[in-house]
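Dear colleague,

Thank you for sharing your sequence with our group. We've completed the structure prediction you requested, and as agreed, I am returning the results in plain text so they can be pasted directly into your records. Please verify that the sequence below matches your submission; if there's any discrepancy, let me know and we will rerun it promptly.
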Amino acid sequence: MKAERLAGLEPACVFGYFEKLCSIPHGSGNTKKISDYLVSFAKEHGLRYEQDQLNNVIIYQDATCGYEDHAPVIIQGHIDMVCEKDSDCTINFETDGLDVTHDDEVVFANGTTLGGDDGIAVAYALALLDDTTIAHPPLEVVFTVDEETGMYGAKDIDLSNLKGKQLINIDSEDEGVFTVSCAGGARANFCLPTPRRAVYGPCIRLSVD
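Please find the predicted structure tokens below.
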């Protein structure tokens, strides 16, 4: 996959796929098009895949020669992004791609969020699946939806066909840093009684976030 706006950046194949992903609308709750793109990628490369009604996608790739007896490795990232834009930006996140570019140091999108979280994981995974020169065990690549709004894709995806026991989640903040973290999340809603009465004196604001 060749990049145009991100041409010259390395790894070239990764940035080529990242640029392609940026051209496809993929905000949380609007992931059908990017999910279908992943299915098209799998078909073009002759890879087995699964796509569910939520738009989660799993792509399977056989081991390269000499690694057939190795245990599968799961690679995971999410395909939705946070959509925010400047007040004067005319991009419609429902239908338009991003105006992505770079200044030789930073990749960014003009007027909008970039979606590097977690588009870079998807780009890395596609570049790996596309590269026939990298030796690897069987790969099970899991792309989930709606992580940004509550991990809803991961919550309801059917993983019963996965054989791997080791998972690499590519969704961290710092380049070159591996993060050891939890394998799940939770959301809780609770109410506190708030009786009100008139008081006088210093005002203190207490925030819990």
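Summary note from our side: The mean pLDDT is 94.

Kind regards,
the structure core
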